[in-house]
Amino acid sequence: MDHFSYNSGVLHAEEVPLPAIAAAVGTPVYVYSRATLTRHARVFREALSGIARVEIAFAVKSNPNLAVLRVLANEGYGADVVSQGEMDRALAAGMAAEAIVFSGVGKTGSELSAALDAGIGQFNLESEEEGVELAEIATAKGLRAVCALRVNPDVDAGTHAKISTGKADNKFGVAYDRAAAIYGRLSSLPGLEMRGLAVHIGSQITTLEPSRAAFVKMGELMRAIRVAGHTVSHMDLGGGLGVPYRAGEVLPGPAEYGAMVADVVRDWDATICFEPGRVITGNSGVLITEVIRVKPGASAPFVVVDAAMNDLVRPAMYDAWHDFAAVAPSGERFTAHIVGPICESSDTFAMNRETDRVVAGDLAVFRTAGAYGATMANTYNSRPLVPETMVDGAKWAVVADRIQPATILAAERVPEWL
Ligand SMILES: *Cc1c(COP(=O)(O)O)cnc(C)c1O
Fold this sequence. Notes:
The protein is of the alpha/beta class.
């Protein structure tokens, strides 16, 4: 459920008509609904109420906007970060250092050092080598790094190949069969406090079975490591729960997911950590775009919009579907290809889409654009970096400026010898 709905024939975010934002900021522009973010944060937490000890770290990479992070910090969420830049954002948004988990397969020595200095709550180690390096850095500082070991459970999440992370050939974590031995060796290092295991098998997961299979395997591993005499007090089950991208699509939601996890972890006697991203932010955002013009095509007309793959890359990168709808629909429908202005054919949002009939100058939205939207935007074709806004009831504000090509141009230099 989200708070984007039609009122008197015009799409609103909460109480704000989207044309008001488009008129003030221009297009394309992202709009986030605070009420939707808050609702998703609460629904997700509520869904885990059957589990005794829970920690939730929002996956910052899904939407790192400072205002979005502030909303989630206010809901008591911590952060799952994958770079020093994300860590700095989470801290700037007011998230407690102890509530930050540092994930990522390539944390550099300087990132590990900065995270230790900041006092973050948990490092999710992706290899024995990383653990050894972190132990050395921590020992030199007279600190102990609190760690979990990320394990690759060799489970197929059944999602797009580019966002699958839990198969043996994916780069993430240590091999399941070697994990207990590595955990034992890392536990003996003076600079580390090994306290748990971590797993994350992928994103936009639309069935519960792969996650259940991975969690059951992690439980077996946890028991084996405890039997070997080591402490495992925390089990980090990652994120990945999918969201519906098409109107009417029904997927297992937080309640079903929470019940499944509660069942699997019943007798684990551990704090269970979660790293949700998309399920919190996905339906909390839309991208408003203006139709530049409609031109004839061989099989259907092309609707050329002013948003492009640089603003919302998911269709080009993951073959993803985003519902497209007119902000003020006429009631007429047609079938069209929806494309951006960028000079390559991957800049296509939809082919042969049955949608609201739009004409030049109309506003439209791509829905469910709050996750992996603005955060993946770039300036390809020397386009501006897309701005972001947030609505709260009848109020709204720009929460990230449009960065103009002139600003980027000003950061470039022609060397004297040219
Ligand atoms: C991307 C990621 C997440 C969040 O995934 P969602 O599908 O957005 O929930 C959580 N944990 C890790 C380690 C990730 O890489």
